[in-house]
Amino acid sequence: MLNFKFHPISYHSTALEKDVTHHIIMVDYKKKHHLLSIPNLYLYEKTRSSSQTSKRYATLITKFYKYLSKKPEFKSINPGDYHIHVTNTDLRQWQVYRQTLRQAKNSIHPSSETIFNDACVILYFFKWLHLKKISSGVKIQLRTWVANFKDRRLLSYIEKKAKIIASTSSIRVLDKQKQQKKARQLISNRDIQTLLSSYPDKVYKILFGFALATAMRPMELVQFPYMGKGKNRHILPYSEMNEEPKTFKYEVLGKGNKLREIIIPAYALKMIDDDYTKTEYPKRARLYKEKHGKNCPLSILFLTSEGEPVSATSIANATNYAKTLAIAKDPEFLPSNMFYHTRKWWPTLMMIQHHDGDGILEKNAEVMDLAITEVIVNQLGHESPTTTYQHYLVLGRLLVMAKKGITHELIHEKTINVHDAIAEYG
Predict the structure, then answer these.
(1) How far is CA 239 from each of CA 50, 200, 271, 382, 383, rounded to the nearest angstrom?
(2) What class, spelled out in words, does domain 189-329 have in CATH?
(3) Are 65 and 93 in contact (CB under 8 A)?
(4) Chain-centre distance of CA 35, in angstroms?
(5) Which of 287, 351, 354, 410 is most buried (CB neighbours < 10 A)?
(6) Helix 152-162 vs helix 88-105: angle between axes, to the nearest 10 degrees?
(7) Is the distance from CB of 213 to CB of 269 less than 8 angstroms?
(8) Nearest to 222 by CA among 203, 236, 197, 238
(9) Which of these, 206, 182, 219, 187, lies nearest to 345 by C-alpha position?
(10) What's the chain's average pLDDT?
């Protein structure tokens, strides 16, 4: 099997006249390092606006190419030419191969849904080739690339290849087990408290609370400054700010390098100042200076206990570690909870507030309200108003029905204390 690998690269694009970052894929072939030009052009064109998307696409293309390199018919083909020889059958067989490995382990991961979605990413790559008029054996109009894991003959084939015993769960049973482990649509108050008590580094607990109050993505949270500039020059440690307003506007650089203005409640900034900036930041900033030989930039507020800037990746890693501790504390804690689920609470509670609590259950609430939709879409950085409105309307109705009799006074006009509301609704 050939050694495929990928890593991020940053450089100045003369075509775009700006710096860009995306992943590139390489392979060791005939004692030389080769860049896979076609996949790398795709990653450049389609994923340079998001490092996480770029990493995911590079990971899946690499996995697919590794699979192809093990097939006899690809042994004599230069990996740089794989895209020319791939067919719909290869893409379908890759799904079957992954399902077989999963079945052999009797594992719920990856689910059939994940295997299908991953294959879709590869199909999009070949669709791009088709649009660019680059030769490929994959026919986009056909559906023969989909593996039907409900087909009895295919199930029998997979079980035979996986060499499983008769009592092993079938694919469908494994998928049901996976479904049972999926997170509720909103992470519960109980799970929030368990997770917060499990973070070994306080900065992640602070970031979790800040995310609940603002619905910002992890990549946006870590950009929040100690002292802002430009349109954010009013952002300072809360004790140095005007404490009269209940909310503050903040310009954030979000997904796809798009700027948007969001609302940050005053209580969230006070929480950060009281529980982190005054107590934790000074010693962490000193560690930063010792390590890097310079003062911590004013554009960076959140630092780990080792004095390193918090990143979206470190948030994910810390949360995964905290989850293992949380499960040990509480067996009912859902393993599929994740930091990103913080984004769902803010828009859901805003939706409830806008419809005066129980009013969200009325029929007329189904008609999209442009005012609240604009607020939510802007805060989240979403692009589909209709889908966003319907999604959080459903979540809001579920909460109200689950906690019937709660009054809308718990959620205040123009600003939400999400932490207090979760204690009631969660």
Answers:
(1) 35, 27, 11, 32, 35
(2) mainly alpha
(3) no
(4) 28
(5) 351
(6) 60
(7) no
(8) 203
(9) 187
(10) 83
